[in-house]
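Structure tokens please, single chain.
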Amino acid sequence: EQPGVLPKPAAALLWCAWVAPGDAMQPRPCSGNPRYGTDYMTDVFTEWGVRAYAPSPAVDPYSPYISPRDHPFACPGVPMWVQFGSLEVLAGEIVEFAEGMRRIEGNEVELAETEGAPHDILLMGGPLGFGDVAEKMAREMGEWLRGKMLLV
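Here you go.
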């Protein structure tokens, strides 16, 4: 370890990660998606979200730090667990991100699909009636961490 440098994380846990906010700059970012009718994400919500990430023209919403889907990076020694709901608007971009990350030598990426779930069941599972599904997915994530010897 180096003084003044943060140590690398033991793992990365991504729950329904928005890995391509720049796509919200396109017309109909959600309503043009085939999963639009099965998720609660809307065009207005994602357009607001990308403005929050990139509030001025000086900030590129397609930069690697904001939209990592198209910019895979090496993270050796940091296993990554990437969860998404099969019915969420972001499912396709999350899968693309995970596949891109897997192509980088030394990366270890677990892609965990929650069948029949919309976006962000960890946060919204209870209010949307997916509380049991969210608990099951959290248990699976815990088992994954235990398998990596990162959780006792």
